[in-house]
Amino acid sequence: MTEAILLVGGKGTRLRPLTVHTPKPMVPAAGVPFLTHQLARARAAGVEHIVLATSYLAEVFEPYFGDGSALGLHLEYVTEVEPLGTGGAIRNVAHRLRSAPDEPVLIFNGDILTGLDIEALVDTHRTTGADVSLHLTRVADPRAFGLVPTDGTGRVQAFLEKPQTPEEIVTDQINAGAYVFNRSVIDEIPTGRPVSVERETFPGLLAAGAHLQGMVDSTYWLDLGTPQAFVRGSADLVMGRAPSPAVPGRCGDRLVLDGAEVAPDAKLTGGTVVGAGARVAPGARVDGSAVLDGAVIEAGAVVRDSLVGAGARIGARTVLDGAVIGDRAEIGPDNELRAGARIWCGARIPQGAIRFSSDQ
């Protein structure tokens, strides 16, 4: 049995206002908290015991998931008092692990949506005799990521942080945020201070001659760090482009949760999800968007590639395109919000207050 650590302590600053009242892994994607998809995929791969490394709004997780039995898991929770970085967070939960020193522990981040073959990563770790194995994926433009070149056998050669010149781009392989550690390696991470696995642990292991193995898996992969990415990830889950056994319904163009009301002539497309108790009025069009629980889309409104927070209201004929509307915000009729607009939780926008001309 492989056990896992799930890093869910980040503040999700880039996702505000979605994360003002909700930790990033608990923001709904395709009808359930995003974390549900990760837990379900880990369970499907044979993982039974998961320790959640929490920090920001740590009190939210356990009341929702409990001991994990509803998902066929045993969940435990460990909270950081002070931010410890990725490596520090891993070390901080080590006392809850059950693995022997030479046994593998799966570690993954709470903001990555991926189709990674978890069992293949663990098998690669075991068959190569690695100390640490990393999921690598290939991207067209790696400048925003840490590069991980490997040799012909997949053994990691270096860790190169965010290259800026063409000469520095020696590979298109990046660290995709899922790892398998031997338990003994976790126990060697320093305690009581922040530690970054990317900048300290991995380079230090490499310099000491440890065996770090990379496994390239270029199936679906998306960092959900921005609102636009989060909305796209939710839509991809609904449409089945991103695999998850936790989507509460059949994959398709739309997902309407129990208790939601959608007018017969309203049009839902592009992986749109409408949350419980939400209402979409006649003539409204919602494409590639997430309408969270209790939100209202009034008659004739158009919502594209946007997220409408819980209890928010979008007025008649209002247009949202690439916007994020915080929980309980009210956008009056005849407004247009485009190009990454963010409206804070509880804000009120009066009728016709924000408009874009046709040439913008």
TrEMBL record:
One Pfam family it belongs to: GMPPB_C
SUPFAM superfamilies: Nucleotide-diphospho-sugar transferases
Family recorded in the similarity comment: Belongs to the transferase hexapeptide repeat family.
InterPro entries: GMPPB_C, Mannose-1P_guanyltransferase, NTP_transferase_dom, Nucleotide-diphossugar_trans
Annotated ranges, domain Nucleotidyl transferase: 4-236
Name by which UniProt lists this protein: Sugar phosphate nucleotidyltransferase
All residue ranges annotated as the Mannose-1-phosphate guanyltransferase C-terminal domain in the record: 254-332
